[in-house]
Amino acid sequence: MSASTAPPEELFPASTIPADAANAFPEGYRLRPLRRDDHGAGFVDCLRALTWVGDMTEAEFQERYDDMARSNGTYFYLVVEHQGRAVGTGALVAEKKFIHNRGKCGHIEEMSIAKEHQGKGLGLKMVQALNALAAAVGCYKTILNCGERTEQFYVKCGYHNSGIEMSQYFEEAVDAYHRG
Length: 180
Fold this sequence. Notes:
Blueprint: H1 19-22, E1 29-33, H2 39-48, H3 58-70, E2 75-82, E3 85-96, H4 99-102, E4 104-113, H5 122-136, E5 139-143, H6 148-156, H7 176-179
Parallel strand pairs: 4-5
Antiparallel strand pairs: 1-2, 2-3, 3-4
């Protein structure tokens, strides 16, 4: 890639994150956009606390990152950084709709805080930051899927059960951890 078409080093401009959301994290923790060099900086390990990731190489990570970066205004991955390492992540996927006056619905995805940093309020701050970001980019609502194990956490974050999730998988049946 030439310098003019090189993917951005951050998935989206940090200035997109509302300041009050970014500044709400405890001392020593910093909220920022996902960076192209985060593969080896703890990001993938954070995701492994959530579900199976597979053996993703740095090149595969960067290929997916580049795909997301080209979808300008759709993918907003946030990273909580502590001592130079990613210790938490959450994503907002802004789905463009025809309904609601061509509105955008924000999907909260891949919420995960590294086990050793859980219990410090980082998950709640991440959800609040994702919601603030969703409002800032024009989403009329956010939705998420969760299991019974995490339902009370999301209730604490202001969410309520609004229906039943349905799914159909197109891969060989595997255990819940590997299914995702």
